[in-house]
Design brief:
Alpha-Beta Plaits; extended; Chitinase A, domain 3; 451 residues; Trigger factor, domain 2; 45% helix; single chain; 5-stranded antiparallel beta sheet; alpha+beta; 15 helices
Length: 451
């Protein structure tokens, strides 16, 4: 067997594999042994007919396809491993037979999608927005309030009107064009005002009602409401407010935090809250800044990304979504059935996001390779020692029982940290004076790779 490889179109490599006549005959013989049990010939028990008999009865090319599969399985992956320093296969090859001349063997061609080389215009000397998030006294107080809310007591209120955050017990009856509709009437219904459980405008109009009072409120059903007959329709709800409940928070004392937070004083608990929030803010700032850096570099990067890499990224995104559903007790197939959506259509909605994610990863890998960032043994040992200490084990015992994937994660995390330390140092980072508050940051592409 001999082979040659050459660059193909659109990030592919064309591997041409020539097999001798003897190798081809041996592959056909192997295919015969593996598949002869499928064929029947008059005068022979099933699977017992000799190879020439089967070929005469069914045709000379009977075992060709299986023989090609034999040659492919025996040689293709070895070639890919041998050429790993020249290219990285990222998907299944397209196979074809270029030559099958009798008496001369066979030539198999594999067109392999490979990881493309990305061209980066520049990755230093750029002006890039960075993100900075601080922790205020209000943030700390909100964190303290969460602890108190976990032990809040629900009490009935009789001396005031309803307000946002209350749980109210109501009777309601809804109608559209004077006609009541299914699901629009209930008695003694408990509703938390401000929870967003009802359509927009409903809960806001219940606020300010007195116990025992009646009120008609008008709302409009959203255009995308699940009941088609109600979409975009104006509705009137007759409301009676029966009861009001509020959460009575426990008193914040040294005794309370000692019992429920494991610290001696309120001041100590607040300080721990601040430290925890600061760490979260710092991580969020770094993650968003890393995303900002990569996004800026990607703007002027070019690569011919093969479709196989896009599909693989979509696979990962769908799998991540499936895992999130599992945590909620849902299966992917049940979710798709509920949404009335096929898997093909569900995958398609990720396609636009997949290409930039692949490009970001290619950029990261290219810079790491160009700058030769590596994880030194001493650095790895230091990380292992830190993790071992956190679980009260010796570094030796911890490393001995470590999953190889965990070791790879540690090494990659060290490399990625070096990468972004370098990029932050060698680019001009600027921040807005008052960054607006946003939901928790998504992890950077690099951090996702590290996991």
């Amino acid at each position: 067997m001999n082979y040659t490889q050459a660059a193909g179109e659109k990030s592919t490599v064309k591997i041409t594999i020539d097999f001798t006549e003897e190798e081809w005959r041996n592959a056909i013989a192997t295919a015969y042994k593996k598949t002869r049990g499928k064929y029947t010939v008059p005068g022979f028990r099933k699977g017992k007919a000799p190879q020439p008999v089967l070929e005469n009865y069914y045709g000379k090319g009977l075992f060709f396809e299986d023989a090609l599969n034999v040659l492919y399985g025996e040689h293709y992956f070895g070639i890919i491993e041998k050429e790993k320093d020249n290219f990285t296969a990222v998907g299944e090859p397209e196979l074809s037979v270029e030559d099958m001349t009798e008496g001369k063997g066979v030539t198999l061609v594999a067109v392999v999608p490979v990881k493309p080389d990305v061209e980066i215009e520049k990755y230093t000397g750029l002006k890039i927005k960075k993100f900075e998030y601080n922790v205020t006294d209000e943030d700390v107080e909100n964190e303290v309030k969460k602890l108190l809310e976990r032990h809040a007591e629900e009490v009935e209120v009789t001396d005031r009107v309803s307000k946002n955050g209350d749980k109210v017990n109501i009777d309601f009856s809804g109608s559209v064009d004077g006609e009541k509709f299914a699901g629009g009437t209930a008695e003694s219904y408990d509703l938390v005002l401000g929870s967003g459980s009802f359509i927009p405008g409903f809960e806001e109009q219940v606020e300010g009602m007195e116990i025992g009072s009646n009120k008609d409120i008008t709302v409009k059903f959203p255009e995308n409401y699940q009941a088609e007959n109600l979409r975009g329709k104006d509705a009137v709800f007759a409301i009676k407010l029966n009861k009001i409940y509020e959460n009575k928070l426990p008193e914040l004392t040294d005794e309370y935090v000692k019992k429920n937070a494991g610290v001696e004083t309120v001041a100590e608990y607040k300080e721990k809250c601040r430290e925890r929030l600061l760490k979260t803010a710092q991580n969020r700032s770094r993650d968003e800044t890393e995303n900002s850096i990569v996004s800026e570099i990607v703007k002027n990067a070019k690569a011919e990304i093969p479709n196989a890499m896009i599909e693989s990224e979509i696979d990962r995104m769908v799998q991540d979504f499936s895992y999130r559903l599992m945590y909620q007790g849902l299966k992917m197939e049940d979710y798709l059935r509920y949404m009335g959506q096929t898997m093909e259509a569900f995958r398609e909605q990720y396609r636009e996001q997949a290409a930039p994610r692949v490009m970001s990863q290619l950029v990261i890998e290219k810079i790491v390779k160009t700058e030769n960032f590596t994880a030194e043994d001493a650095e790895v040992d230091e990380k292992i020692a830190e993790q071992a200490k956190s679980v009260e084990k010796s570094a030796e015992d911890y490393k001995k029982n470590m999953d190889p994937r965990q070791l790879d994660y540690i090494k990659n995390d060290i490399v990625i940290t070096k990468l972004f330390d370098f990029l932050m140092k060698n680019n001009e980072l600027y921040s807005e004076e008052k960054p607006e508050k946003k939901p928790a940051a998504k992890k950077s592409a690099a951090k996702k790779k590290a996991e």
